[in-house]
Amino acid sequence: MNRLRKVKALRPQVRALIGELAKQEPLLREELQSRLNLSDRKSFRERYLKPAVSLDLIEMTAPEKPRSRSQRYRLTPAGRKLLG
Fold it and tell me: What InterPro entries would the database entry show (predicted)?
């Protein structure tokens, strides 16, 4: 499946994540999770963050420190374009 098809077939979870980042960015993982009313950190990472990052829809503000507790996420140009 090419990248365009993957973006069009986004999970609702990823669309919700992108929608929250459109309101305000950058945000900490904890802030995003709270805004989406999610408590399971592992599930959030697997179902929301990883797919959005792998499709280049969101990015880390400090990619050289992926495990930093102050890591924030923001939309990429592709993420903004998806919003319309």
Answer: Fic-like_C
